[in-house]
C-alpha cells in the first residue's frame, strides 16, 4: 500500500512540474471554456488514477478506468490542439 501511494505521489509531482513549466502560461491565454474543458479532463484523469491506485481495478472497473483515461486524454489533447491550430 505504501508503494502504491508513493508511486501516485511521484506521478503527481511529475505532472505538476510539467504543468508549471509548460501548460500554465500557455493556458492562461485560452478562452475560459477551453480552460475548463482541459483542466476538467485532467482532473478526471487524476481522480481515476487515484481510485486505481487506492482500490485497484478488475473486470468492468478496469474497463471503465481505461475508457476514462482514453476519453479524458482525448478531450485534453483536442482542446490543446484546437488552441494551437492557427489558420
Question: Can you walk me through this structure?
Answer:
The protein has 87 residues and is mostly helical. It has one domain. It is built from three helices and no strands.
- Summing up helix and strand content along with how strands pair, one would put the structural category as mainly alpha
Instruction: Extract low-pLDDT stretches.
Output: none
Query: What percentage of the residues does DSSP assign to strands (E)?
Result: under 5%
Number of helices: 3
Describe the structure concisely for a colleague:
The chain has 87 residues and is mainly α. Helix content is 85%, strand content 0%.
Features:
85% helix; 87 residues; mainly alpha
Task: Give me the secondary-structure topology.
Elements: H1 2-27, H2 32-55, H3 60-83
Helix pairs in contact: 1-2, 2-3
